[in-house]
Amino acid sequence: MHKQKKEIYNFQSEVKQLLHLMIHSLYSNKEIFLRELISNSSDAIDKLRFESISLPELYENDSDLKIQISVNKAQNTLIISDNGIGMSKKDTIENLGTIAKSGTKAFLKSLEQQKNKKNELIGEFGVGFYSVFMVSDHVSIRTRFAGTQSDEGVLWESSGEGEYKITNIIKKNRGTEITLFLKKEEAEFLETWRIKNIINKYSDHITVPVYMQNYDEKNKTYFWEKINQAKALWTLNKSSITDEEYKTFYKNLTHDQHDPLVWSHNHVEGKQEYISLLYVPQKAAWDIWNRDNKNGLKLYVKRVYIMDNSHEFLPNYLRFIRGLLDSNDLPLNISREILQNNSITEKLKKALVKKSLNMLDRLSVNNVEKYQVFWNEFGLVLKEGPAEDHENIEKIANLLRFTSIKNNNSEQNISLKKYVSNMHEKQEKIYYITADSYLSAKNSPHLEIFKKNNIDVLLLSDRIDEWMMNYLVEFQGKKFQSISKEDISINKLTKEKKINNNEISQDMINFLKKTKTILGNKVKDVRFTNRLTETPCVLLSDSSEMTTQMAKLFSAAGQSIPELKYIFEINPEHLLIKKICFINDEKIFNEWITLLLDQALLSEKGHLDNPHEFISRMNKLLLKK
């Protein structure tokens, strides 16, 4: 006789938090628990299909793969079973007792913030199973891993509080059977029509048949009815698939509550045969900036599921793309190592990148509003593209969006194509400025000459922008030029003449000489400029030197940087400069020049090494009569 051994375990602390939120919060979309369970069963069957390629004995004389759903109104139970790969005792502890992923606390915080809203996060973190406790008082799971003995079955039980029990049982068939003991107020989920509606809504196009147990009143017998299409949607002819079906399939594939913004479905034949179905989400994944963010495509080979999150087919800057790839050319026993060193993989990757960028390009042309939604969510990710993908840099550049002086608001909605079409006739370059914030960029003194001459300048204030501009050298034959760097094209373009010392008073020439002596090697050079209209002075980087923003990036990354030496440009027409020019007291004159340099440094860098000294000097000079 088989001896049953019952063991009690405590949930991981993060699981306890999650269960507490699910049980005690009001979710308006409780029905998704069924979608999650069916999705898990479907994954278990997909994994069995894959493993059985090399180990056909895992089928255990039962290759009729399916998911079955039955209800028992007398006992208030809903049962979902599958004959997929099943779980061992170790699997049940790892999969049902812990959340072994980094970023769990961030996820729980997001869930906490959403607890009184329509839930949009269940499933996006791989914690979909726990949604059963929204509708159940108690849950029991009977499971056995494929290929093991019948006495290696496992019974997992919990009421979703602090602990769960595991018992060794005999289970003749492989796979998993989940029994939900529903709360009295959740009786709607015992109705056949309700379950059918949920399946049709969320799971119609999973590749596994789902059967519902029905009762024939006339013959007094039970029978199984197939309630989903169980056809791989991506294999169907595009003309036969409705938009609603594409959207439903996306939600089932990704567990996203929102409709996708756009999708691209392609059947390719010839030297390479494959099907791709690519989607652009409406919302970014909450963990899109995590290093271990699970991104990539679901991979099939000849309709057989191989793996989730196969990131080998899309570069990192397109990690927001969701969908699947079904290839006829890759070997069925493929591994990640083979994928990484496979010429077919590289060719598929090139093709999918092209399709992804073309899909975004069409969206930007055909639906400006939707593209703006995309840009607001994923623009920062796409900005990684120029550094990662030189081959497609022109296409990526065409998709980038910016704000500018003339835009007069912080929304990034100007394309480079639009900027170039609005350039002055004699304008040779695309002008831009990088800064820590939109307001800082918008109010930079470097813009004064451009505003005066009605020349537009792109305002770049995202942290990644300076790094991106190192790779974005030109667009449509026009080179990019930072206006915080010295450049002769600006003087050529504007009507301002270069300042000639012969046209400046001797007092101003003496002022310039004294300033150079006082500042010495603190700056690279001191000179007069006509680039300023409202500001007394500004700092300019030499054309061959590192910019301030790039220095900040290196510093933030913990890298040492050479000392920055700027060109100190002075506006001889400014009233403050004219006033300082006639100060005879050498000590006070020195204080003023040092103050002007600090002002320019504060404007350029956003901070000073010794702000107290700057304030003290300014107060001292303000008190002077």
TrEMBL record:
Q: Which residues form the Histidine kinase/HSP90-like ATPase domain?
A: 29-186
Where does this protein hold ATP? 36, 40, 82, 87, 95, 101-103, 176, 336
Q: Where is this region: B?
A: 337-552
The main location is cytoplasm
Taxonomic superkingdom: Bacteria
Similarity annotation = Belongs to the heat shock protein 90 family.
SUBUNIT field: Homodimer.
Record-given protein name: Chaperone protein HtpG
